[in-house]
Amino acid sequence: PRSRGLGDVYKRQIVHLVYHTFTKPAPGYMSLNGSKITVIVGAQWGDEGKGKITDYFAGESDYVVRYHGGNNAGHTVIVNGSIFKLHLIPSGVLYDHPVSVIGNGVVIDPAALLNELQYLHNKGIQPRLNISDRAHVIMPYHKQMDDVLTNHQGVLAAGSTKRGIAPVYADKMFRHGIRMIDLTEPDILKEKLHRSYEFNHKLINAIGDQVIQEDEKSIYREYCQYGKKLAPYIKDVSLELYSAQQNGKAILFEGAQGISLDIDHGIYPYTTSSNSIAGNIATGTGVSFRDIDRIIGVTKAYISRVGIGPLPTELPLEKGNDLREKGKEYGTTTGRPRRVGWLDLVQVRQAVRVNGMTEIALTKLDILSNNGDLSVCTAYNIDGQLEQEMPASLHRFRQAEPVYHTLPGWGQLSDDMTEKGYESLPENLRNYVKFIEDQVSCPVSIISIGPERSQTIIR
Ligand code: GDP
Ligand code: IMO
Ligand code: MG
Asked: N or C: lower Cβ tally within 10 Å for the chain?
């Protein structure tokens, strides 16, 4: 079925247009003819169900855009029993209509991207794909460097997906990174690769006592080939999205990871190496944040975490195993078992504030059915002090003990509830939702009670 639920955006859009037309006629200001921008972000530790929610809204969008991260992300979408696992290509790809865009803030492993295109072709999908000419390229030595870093960092390592994410973003900041456009210009590629290769070679050798597994010449040949294959997709996507905005097209941004993995606002250093928050759409695609209409924070009804680092609401082994199996909590990218625990509203409170979330999409409520009483963390007790916000101090976060509120659980949900709507859900489930809304001051407008596109309720 075609997705529903963006209707109120149009109402808000009229207000927005009136506002810009009549109250802000700044010199040189151009009307955007009713732009419609929605951003989907993760409000926890990633894997909240962003792919499912993005797919749900993608049918009403003209563009679906990734703005940060790389193939460390794994987004699962299920439609009529068919399962799609996406890593780099935005989760709007299951519809014919929207254009898929990979913005400049994304880091691209060309081999992984070509594999993903092939995977989709095999499933009968030909994505209409645009890749930013300014996006940085993951090189083989970045993946090797991830290994070296993980060993070097010891207990401070986040448990990287080993996709080369931290090293490629570091090279971008060092300013010897390689961008997608460079793959189409062999002389520039050769010039840049030489510097980047030498630098990484010395680092890998000094820190990991290793040599780069592939020699410079063969990397050059391999990446020239990727450039030839990917050239038709590479363009200035910022310009394309700007013109789409001016023509009133609907643009949906799909975040990867989640608030606690954000390089600035997350539990550093147990984070990823990009900003996952909604504000990053501007730097990550060249589309201004001025005209965002909706920011949807996807929130799982409990938490999961793949990777290392302190996790205050983590469940003890046996209870955790039950929830992990029921929720099929295994990493989409690495297959690693995800650590699971009770919902942490200290975390979600921060996500609401920092993203400017207009609403929550609450997922996996079906997994908490038949679970008995449910605990929800509303604050931390840190060295005898009550803390309502995420601490920056690693020392304090390691000491954080969850303060729980207990709510009664609910029984089995039935398939017809998605048709019958929100009021048909058990009262205790609706009380759970209300409790979350009150605690984090943000409405829950989307409810997900199963992995299928159709198992979604809009309030
Ligand atoms: P993402 O990284 O945020 O896109 O999330 P993932 O796709 O990595 O992980 C979420 C998993 O939960 C996927 O396997 C989804 O198919 C599944 N899922 C999403 N929403 C629901 C839901 O409401 N109920 C159930 N049972 N599964 C869901
Ligand atoms: P999606 O988009 C969950 C975690 C890794 C590790 C840390 C750093 O599917 O929600 P990196 O490879 O980025 O250097 O790893 O971040 N991580 C994720 N965890 N979901 C993700 O993406 C993740 N992407 C990275 O496990 O702890
Ligand atoms: Mg995921």
From this structure: N
Atom number of ligand 2 nearest to Cα 75: 9
**How far apart are alpha carbons 287 and 283 in whole angstroms?**
8
Ligand 1 atom having least distance to the Cα of 77: 16
Amino acid, res. 205: N
Q: What is the pTM of this model?
A: 0.93
* Pairwise CA distance, residues 249 & 243, whole Å: 9
Question: Quick one: which atom of ligand 1 is closest to the CA of 298?
Answer: 3
CA 290, distance to chain mean position in Å, is 21
In DSSP terms, 39 is beta-bridged to 253, 295
Does 255 have pLDDT greater than 80? yes
Give the ranges where 356-426 is alpha helix by DSSP (H): 394-399, 417-420
Residue with the smallest CA separation from ligand 1 atom 20 is: 451
In short, whether 50's Cβ falls inside 6 Å of ligand 1 is: yes
> Ligand 3 mean position to 72 CA, how many Å?
8
Question: 20, 68, 75, 87: which is the annotated catalytic residue?
Answer: 75
Cα–ligand 3 centroid distance for 14 (angstroms): 35
Tell me the β-bridge partners of 232. Answer: none
Q: What is the pLDDT of residues 308-325, one digit of tens each?
A: 999 999 999 888 999 999
User: Which amino acid, residue 10?
Assistant: Y
Q: How far apart are CA 248 and CA 246, in angstroms?
A: 5
Q: Is the peptide bond before 408 cis (omega within 30 degrees of 0)?
A: no
Nearest ligand to the C-alpha atom of residue 417? 1
* Gap between the Cα atoms of 263 and 271, Å rounded: 6
Residue 330 host element (H or E): none
Judged on CB neighbours under 10 Å (0-12, 13-18, 19+), 17 is: middle
**Three-state DSSP class for residue 387:** strand
Ligand 2 atom 25: residue of nearest CA: 72
pLDDT at residue 332, as a whole number = 81
CB 76 within 8 A of CB 51: yes
Pairing of strands 75-79, 82-86: antiparallel
